[in-house]
Design brief:
homodimer, about 350 residues, alpha/beta, 4-stranded parallel sheet, 12 helices, 10 strands, DNA-binding
Chain lengths: ~350, ~350
DNA sequence: TTGAAAGCGCTAACAG
DNA sequence: CTGTTAGCGCTTTCAA
């Protein structure tokens, strides 16, 4: 059932039917009611492609998911972000277009999206320091919102981010308060903006207690399970005193890390404490709330919602300035922590 | 730059330029070369919406992601599947359209997708037993491929699935071979088709040794971390002999499970063994290969590739019969396993 | 081997 | 308040 057929059934012109359907004021309310009723009865849905060809608006938003060319890893927070954004799109009548693109091909992907006219705007995932995609998009005049930030970008841009620095600072403080002094930090790749912010938080917490960060206890890699395993294993075996606590930048990395700790015959929360990027820990509540982590699954979802809403705002009111939204890290209860073991 | 402008620059008609670009044979090769060259120089990209309006093909494929109305969980394997499918779409010139839809609204979502003409086909995620979406799609005459299967569906349909039954049978056998007899099984929700198949595998392995499955050791819920924690905690505390091994249907569930084991003061691989849905375990290789699991991240990605390719086949050659592709579970090395502790 | 013209399904001036 | 007409950018007869 298309507009032409529908208007014929009603004995009206396509124009009138279109206007009635799209809420234009100049339509007789009785006519509008008839039209609306018929549309419902015949399950009429306007053809999106025709509509957007006529209006020049795609009613779609693109998400370009960078895949690391090295490990081909898809960041798992991505599904939650998408879920949040999807809610908003569904409410607002937008479609969501996904492109999975190796980071080498990203620039071309953006240009194509633009030229093919398939989207009205774009969400940028996984920003790096001074990410070249942001000026590129500005140049292409494609509305965009960044999930995260890109230190070193000159012109202002819209973003939604979680306070990574603060979260890791608090996590480090938690371990310091428990008496830990040798706190290993398994960070993500420090070409990523979020990873640098996290390191700053870690270092700030140490500095506030007059402690220097020890390079032997700091790593930065893509957040795989193998990375967690190898790093923890090496650090637990290295000459000099062992770390008594680990701070891991990702749940996946922490899985490997825990395995290494198990293998070393150490007990979690007694010989070694682990704090990680985690979620759903509220079931562990034992009365004491400890500030832990940044991007719990539910907060990532919320970030998705906000980013989508901000982008739609940008698209529909292009003159509004850039939206900048720093979400505070969420408080979560838990972690396999305990006091630092006493030295003997 | 659109077709009209491009053809004017070339002093040719739109028709000829279009034909040259789309590989029609009746074009003079010299002309074609000129056209191709100009298209490249001017970065010409045909407008997708105009093209699909004219051809009647959307050149897009829909993925409808069901969100459980209860927990709003997005299955994390989803990102990997999408990544695999995305590769294929990129190669074949299709766009990927995502809708995140609460399972209550799924039927409407499919109908709309169909009526709005935004996709040429659909991938069905997370099939349930006798999933109503499959006959619905058949009725709508929308090409579709299911990721997984739906026991109880009458008419044949296309699917790509991993051999869940076999994988869980082998995992159970592994634990049985190590001497375990009280093997707890934390399954996913058994309204999902894959979960039922996994249970069958578990039961079959026990039955083959003349063991009866013990209902007190079996659970079925949505695969959250809290579920793993609560279940393991309860089972380790229950009257009667403890389980000496756990089989968990998801990596996330296993995280909670491990935490409960830690809390109980038990040692992994000594007091208790855990086998789970895992990946990247090859870094643990110690010489012995043990058959473990189904949907490692890389095999899910491969499933995404195959499903996408199958769907494109269905779209482009509608008369080919349904594609059915049972992937064997992948062999992975690892697991926190050890011999069953002797009773005292 | 090329081009003119119609049309995909819709919206948006412009008239009335 | 309603209708006529043109056109969004492309493909596809049909004719030359």
């Amino acid at each position: 059932m298309n507009l032409k057929e529908l208007s014929q059934k009603l004995g009206l012109s396509q124009t009138t039917v279109s206007r009635a359907l799209n809420g234009y004021p100049e339509v007789n309310e009785a006519t509008r009611a008839r039209v609306l009723d018929a549309a419902r009865r015949y399950h009429y849905r306007p053809n999106t492609r025709a509509k957007s060809l006529a209006t020049g608006r795609a009613m779609a938003i693109g998400h370009i998911i960078p895949i690391s060319t090295r490990h081909e890893i898809v960041n798992p927070v991505f599904s939650d972000f998408i879920a949040g954004a999807g809610e908003v799109y569904a409410r607002s009548g937008y479609d969501m277009l996904l492109s999975v693109v190796s980071d080498a091909a990203e620039e071309r992907a953006y240009r194509e999206l633009r030229a093919k006219g398939s989207v009205d705007g774009v969400i940028v995932h996984g920003p790096k320091l001074a990410d070249p995609r942001i000026p590129l998009l500005a140049g292409l005049d494609l509305p965009h919102v960044v999930h995260g930030r890109a230190t070193g970008t000159d012109a202002p841009y819209s973003w939604v981010d979680v306070n990574n620095r603060r979260a890791f600072q608090r996590a480090t403080e938690l371990l310091l308060d428990l008496g830990h002094r040798r706190i290993a930090f398994l960070n993500g790749l420090e070409t990523m903006d979020f990873a640098v912010r996290r390191r700053h938080g870690y270092e700030a917490a140490l500095a506030a207690r007059g402690l220097a960060a020890d390079p032997a206890l700091m790593r930065s890699e893509e957040m795989t399970e193998a990375y967690g395993y190898r790093s923890a294993r090496a650090m637990l075996a290295q000459a000099g005193p062992r770390p008594t606590a680990f701070l891991a930048s990702s749940l996946i990395t922490a899985i490997g890390l825990r395995r290494a700790i198990e293998e070393a015959g150490l007990r979690m929360g007694r010989d070694v404490s682990v704090v990680t990027h985690d979620d759903e820990l509220s079931y562990l509540a034992n009365g004491e709330e400890v500030p832990i982590f940044t991007a719990t699954r539910s907060s990532v979802r919320e970030a998705g919602r906000r980013a989508a809403a901000a982008l739609i705002g940008l698209i529909e009111a292009p003159d509004s300035g850039p939206a900048q939204d720093l979400m505070e890290a969420q408080l979560v209860i838990g972690g396999s922590t305990g006091p630092a073991p006493t030295e003997d």
